[in-house]
Amino acid sequence: MKLPDPKRWFLASLSSLLSPWHDAISKIRLISDYYQPELKLAASIGGVMCATVVLAAWERHSKAKNRVRLIWFSGLFLVALLGCYLLTISVGVFWHPNYFLEVTLRFIWPTLFFLLYIFASACISLCLLIFWK
After folding, report:
1. Cα(66)–Cα(86) distance, rounded to whole angstroms?
2. Domain assignments of the chain as residue spans, ordered by start
3. Closest by CA position to 125, among listed 44, 78, 57, 41
């Protein structure tokens, strides 16, 4: 039996898999309110720009190369997500960093949050290139 073309079922399957958890996932606090709303706006714009660059730059590359890139960007996305989440639940709750670490975290935390959007946009764009090319 031949499976249907992935172009027809991939997005529908992915959205139906994620739909029960969409509300819970979208309400996760990943960064302090101190950085909002400017950082969220910048991350959203950066995500769109990254998706455009990925689609334009890697459109002609083979599916195999894009699959490897998708694996890398998925891993980087998960690392950034975990980093933001661990910082959110630990800083100021049970870990109170000294002055030097606090200054360092003021750079690292927003950077991780920004990269989270970049990596997510790259993953989505690579999925489009792999399944719709």
Report:
1. 30
2. 35-132
3. 57
φ, ψ dihedrals at 3, nearest 5°: -75, 150
Average pLDDT rounded to a whole number, residues 103-112? 90
Distance CA 131, CA 54 (A): 15
- What are φ and ψ of residue 95, in 5° steps? -130, 120
Residue type, 128: L
Question: Is the model's pLDDT at 52 over the cut of 80?
Answer: yes
- Amino acid (one-letter) located at 39: L
What is the full DSSP assignment across 65-127?
HHHHHHHHHHHHHHHHHHHHHHHHHHBTTTB---HHHHHHHHHHHHHHHHHHHHHHHHHHHHH
Using CA atoms, how far apart are residues 122 and 99, in angstroms rounded to an integer? 35
Share of the chain above pLDDT 90, in %: 19
What is the residue-wise DSSP string for 2-27? PPPPHHHHHHHHHHHHHGGGHHHHHT
pLDDT bin (cut points 50, 70, 90) of residue 82 is very high
